[in-house]
């Protein structure tokens, strides 16, 4: 399994400063990957905007979690599937 970690580590070499990388063992876009993207990349940008914001999802069940929906409610973000 160590080769797998090296493979993914190599993807990050030379990437833009501040880039966030993630992956799942299955290769699918799982809930933890989505939650990470939402919390660290999307939510900070949405917080800077005034009023109600809308995020449109693709009906993927990994988007539905308390870790995403609670901050949506707190920061006037409507999550549409």
Please describe what this structure looks like:
By secondary structure, the protein is mainly alpha-helical. The chain has a domain at 31-81. The chain is built from three helices and two strands; from the N terminus they run H-H-E-H-E. It has a two-stranded parallel ribbon with strand order 1-2. Strand 1, helix 3 and strand 2 form a beta-alpha-beta unit. The mean pLDDT is 84. GO terms for molecular function: nucleic acid binding. Residues 16-79 form the DDE-1 domain. This is DDE-1 domain-containing protein. InterPro entries: DDE_SF_endonuclease_dom. It comes from Rhamnusium bicolor.
End-to-end distance: 35 Å
Helix content estimate: 40-55%
Global morphology: flat
* Major β-sheet strand ordering: 1-2
The major sheet is characterized as:
2 strands, parallel
E-strand count? 2
In N-to-C order, the SSE pattern is HHEHE
Q: What structural category arises from helix and sheet content?
A: mainly alpha
Mean pLDDT: 84
Q: Unreliable runs, pLDDT <50, ≥5 residues?
A: none
Strand-residue proportion: 5-15%
Radius of gyration: 15 Å
Number of helices: 3
Domain DDE-1: 16-79
GO molecular function, one term: nucleic acid binding
Protein name: DDE-1 domain-containing protein
Pfam families: DDE_1
Topology:
Elements: H1 2-12, H2 31-47, E1 53-56, H3 66-74, E2 77-80
Parallel strand pairs: 1-2
Brief sketch in words of this structure:
The protein is mainly alpha-helical. The chain has a domain at 31-81.
Q: Which keywords apply here?
A:
mainly alpha, 81 residues, two-stranded parallel sheet, 46% helix, flat
